[in-house]
Amino acid sequence: MGNARRFKTHSLHHAVLAAWAMLGAVAPAMADQPVDLGAVGTTGTAAVSQKNDRDSAVYQAPGSMSINATEPVFDINQHYVEENTYAGSNYTDIISILPSVVSVDPNGPGMMETQSLTIRGFQDGQYSVTFDGIPWGDSNDFTHHSTSYFMAQDIGNVAVDMGPGDASNIGYATFGGTVAVHSKDPTNTPATSIFGSTGSWNTHLLGAQFDTGNLQNYGDGKGFISYKSFSTDGYLTNSTQRRENLFMKFQKVVADDSLLTFVAMGNRLFQNVPYGATLGQMAQYGQNYGLSSNPASQAFYGYNYDQITSDFEYLGLKTHFGDVQLDNKVYTYAYYHNGYNGLNPTFDTYLGTGNPAGLPQTGTVVGGVAYPNDVPGQAMTMNYRSVGDIARFSQKLGQGTFDYGAWFDYQTNNRSQIETDWTQNQAFNTANQVNGSTGMLAYTDRLMQDTLTTFQPYAQYEWKLQDNWVVTPGLKYSYFRRGFDSAVQQGSGVPYNGSQSWEKLLPALTTNYKISPVWSVYAEAAEGFMAPNMNLFFKGNPQTGALKPQSTTNYQVGTVWTTKDLNVSADIYRIDFTNKITSYACGIFTCFNNIGGVRYEGGEAQATWMFVKGWGLYGNLGINNYSTSDGSILPYTPHTTAALGTIYENARWYASLIAKEVGERNSGTGNGTIPFGSYTVTDLNVSYKVDTGWSWAKQAKLGLQVNNLFNRNDIYATFGATDQNGNPAFFTLPERYVQANFALVF
Q1: At a CB cut-off of 8 Å and minimum separation 6, what does 721 contact?
Q2: Quick check: 107 and 239 in contact, CB under 8 A?
C-alpha cells in the first residue's frame, strides 16, 4: 500500500548497556536497611520457599515458571507489579513484558483500553481472562474492557497460561490461553497508606488504602479497602480519561477450619475515544492527533466519549467435608456503557478538496428535512450482568488426587444503537438508517436483548506414578447457548427471536517429571473451545446449526530449572486451529463459511539470573509462526518478541531497566495487508524507601518511572477505520512518559 511505512529494527544491546551504566552509578549510594511497606501476596506458580526471598530469582523475576508446571504458565508476582506498573496500569500493561505477548495503549500506559493485546497471535476474544478464578467478559464476542475493572494497586499476581490448560481450566475461550488475575491478600498488621503519582500529559493519581490487620476481637478476620482517583489528558489530543475505582477484600476463618472471602469492586469511567489518524492527518496535526476541537467535525471530542460504570462481587468459601475439599465462589459482575460518537470520526478534515468542516456529503435528515451541513452521529448502550457459581472439589484417591467441579454462568445483555444529529442536540437522524422500517425504528440500527448460558463441568485425576512423576488425564464438557429477543437485530435491521446451542467434550492430558529437585520437564496435549460469536446472528435468517464451534488442539513440551539464583524455562508448541469461520456476502445479508484452520508453531524461553546479591539479569524470547489453509495473513502476529534488562534491589533502593522488542507483523485489515516494522520500548523504574522517624507517618516511598525511555514513536498498528477516501487510520507508539510517585504509611 502506498501509505504503508516500515521502520528499522533497533536491537536491544543499547538498552542493556545503558542499564549497566545507570545502575552502576546508582548502586554505591544504596543503603541496606530492610523496610517493609506491605506484605507481598501470593505469587501463584512461584515456589513457596522463594516467593518472599528478596534475593531469589523467583521473587525478582518479571515472569517466572514453577518447577511443578505441566504447561507454559508465566507468573508475574506482586513485587514486580508494585515496582514496575504505572498509575493507571491494567492487567494488559502488566503482562506485556512476557514472551509472545504484545500490548500497547496508544494513549499512554493505562490511559486507554488496550487495542492490541495478543498472546501467540491470538486476539482478545480468543483467550480467557479470569479474576480470582472467575471468568469475565462481554458475551457478544468474549472480549474485555481493560479500563473498566481492576487496577494494578489491588492486584497480587497475574499468571498467563499459554494454552487451554488442563481440564479444570474454565472460561469462555480457553483455546488461546488464559490471563489469570488474582487480587492481593489482606495483611496481618493494621495500616493506613496514602499514595499518588503525577506525570506527563497532566496525569494524576491519588489513592488511599486501609488495612484492618488481624481483628482478634472479631474472629480473626482481616481485610482492606482502597480507593483510587485517576485522571489524564492522554498522549493523543483531546483524549482524556477520568477514572474512579473502589475495591475491598475481607477474609474470615469460620468454624475453625473454613475460610470465607468477600470481594467487591466498583469502577466509574469517562473517556474520550480516539480512532487513530490517517497519514494525512498526522502530517497536518502531528502524530499524536486523536480527536478534534472543532464542533463542526465528526471527530470533535465532545461527540466521541464513553460513560461506563461496572462492578464485580463474589463470596467465596473454602472448607472440607471429611476428605473432600471444597472451594466455591458465587459471583456477579456488570458493565453499563453509554457510548457516543460521530458517524465516522476519521472524517475530521477533507485534505485537498471538499467541505472544510470535514462533513460527509450526506449530512442528516431530521423529521423528513435534510440538513446537509449537520454533524451525524450515533448513540449506543450495552448493559449486561452475569451471575454464576464455580464449585471445585478435590479429594485424595488411591495414588493421586481426584479433582472435579463445574462452572455455571448466565449473562443478560441489552444493546441499542441509534442514528443522531449532533448539531441538533442528538435529534433522530433517518439519513443513515440501516433497515427498511418506518416510524420510530427508522433511526434504529439495533435494539436487542440477548442471553448467554454457559455450563462447564470437569473431572481429572492427578496420578502420582512416582514421587517425581505426575500424569493428569482429564475431561471437560463445554456448553454454550445464545438466545435473542430483538426488535431490531444488528446487521439485518429486522426483528429476530431465536436461539442456538453448541457443545463439545474437551480431553486433556498433562504430565510433569522432575529430573532433580531443581529441574523438571513437562508435556501437554489438550483441546480448547470457543462458541461462535454473536455476529453469526446478524442476518435475516441465521443458519448457525451447520457451523461448528471453533476449537484448537494444543501440543506443548517444556522444561524448567529453578534455584535461588536462577529461574529459567523453555517450551515449544504446536496448535491446530480448526473450523476457522469467515464471512461473505449473500444478497443483502452476510453469510458465514468454515474455511478450515490455522497451524501455529513456535516457542518461548525466559530466564532471571541473580548473579550477585541484589542484582539480576532478565531476558525472554518468543518465536511464533503460523500457516493458514487459505493463505491469509493473521493480524498482529509478530514472528518474534524479546526482552532484556537488569534489576537491582537492596533494603531501600529498587531499580529496573528493561527493553521489550516486538518483531515485524502485518495488519491483516480489510484495507489490504499493511506491514509494520519491529520496534523496541524501554522502561526505567527507580524507587527509594525510608523509615521517616515521624510520629504521623512511619514509612515513605518515592519513585520515578519512565516509559519509552528512548522516545520511540513508530506507527505500529491500524484498526480498520478509514477517511472518506478509504485511507486507513493508524496509531503510533506514545512518546516518552515520565511519572513521579509517592507513598506514605501511617
Answers
A1: 275, 276, 344, 345, 346, 728, 729
A2: yes
Residue by residue, DSSP assigns 178-241 as EEEEEEPPPPSS-EEEEEEEEETTTEEEEEEEEE---BGGGTTBEEEEEEEEEEE--SSTT--E
Asked if 607 contacts 618 with a C-beta cutoff of 8 angstroms, the reply is yes
Whole-model pTM: value is: 0.89
Residue 564: how many other CB atoms lie within 10 Å: 16
What is the rounded average pLDDT of the residues 489-515? 91
Q: Cell digits for 696? A: 504521623
Residues 564-575, mean pLDDT to the nearest whole number: 97
Residue closest to 83 by CA, chosen among 684, 722, 720: 684
- Measured distance CA(95)–CA(179) in Å, rounded: 9
Between 178-192, 354-368, 597-611, the lowest mean confidence (pLDDT) is in 354-368
> For residue 488, which phi and psi values (nearest 5 degrees)?
-135, 110
Q: Which domains does the chain have, with CATH numbers?
A: 13-745 (2.40.170.20)
C-alpha 552/C-alpha 576 separation (Å) is 5
Distance CA 744, CA 746 (A): 7
Q: Which residues pair with 686 in a beta bridge?
A: 655, 704
Helix/strand/coil percentages in the chain, nearest 5: 10, 55, 40
Calpha distance 520→504 (Å, rounded): 32
Distance CA 71, CA 520 (A): 12
C-alpha closest to that of 283 among 735, 733, 732: 732
Q: Which DSSP symbol is given to 126? A: S
DSSP E strand stretches across 277-323: 305-321
Given a cut of 80, whether residue 643 has pLDDT beyond it is yes
Name which of 79, 67, 101 is nearest 568 in CA terms: 67
pLDDT digits (tens, 9 = 90+) for 212-264: 999 887 778 999 999 999 999 999 999 999 999 999 999 999 988 899 999 99
CA distance linking residue 522 with residue 524, whole number of Å? 7
Place of cell 436461539: 499
Position of cell 435475516? 540
| Look-up of cell digits 529494527 | 9
